[in-house]
Amino acid sequence: MNTKLAIALLIVLSVLIFTLVIFTIFSQQTPLQSNGVLFQVSSLASLVNGSYEGKMTVHDLLNHGDFGLGAVEYMDGELVCLDTECYRVTLDGMAHELSPGSKVAFASVVFFQPNKTFDIPQQQNFTGLQKYLDDKLMAKNDIFAIKIDGFFSDITTRTVHKQDKLYVPLSEVIANQTISHLYNTHGTLVGFYVPDYMKEINVVKYHFHFLTDNKEFGGHVLGFDMTNGTGYVSKINEVSIVP
Ligand SMILES: [Zn+2]
User: How many angstroms does the Cα of residue 67 sit away from the middle of ligand 1?
Assistant: First the structure.
């Protein structure tokens, strides 16, 4: 092989490697662009006033995040999104995968990519977990998406009833909630920590919805006894709201 040919081959090879490196970096960064963005459909203030109409399809919602919680249109079930699917939890506490065309009245979702992982001390109830997370997060003005996988000896969830008309105050809807219990189950708490200054936008402090590992049971979390668990936290850097 003569020297010119060798140099030409070297140049071609260098260009190919350079292109491959750039492509690899670019393709890894693309999904990260939405990392840390809380995508919010409607606001707590609207929901409190009874704005229960569907505002976005599940298909569109999943384009903005696949981890989160909310309420289905006309409050026909608690919403929980996990592992690229959204589920509706009905009055019996059972979870049902939502079709892409289903609509949500309120939702908070992210593409969950944890910055922090930690073991939860054994035998925690909801109050204990919140105190533990307070110590771990140490930043009262920040927003966090929080995922906790664990074994629950007992978990209590609630689901609200479907509303036939709009503008029934949320307090009345919650007063008629239906409560479910499940014992000795593996599952995931899907939720957020939101600071007080966002009280018109979202539920402040800790708000979790639950889904069992088999994706069959869930709901808005009222209480639990967790035997053990692992926590994953993702700090939110930006909030995007569709009113
Ligand atoms: Zn809830």
Answer: 14
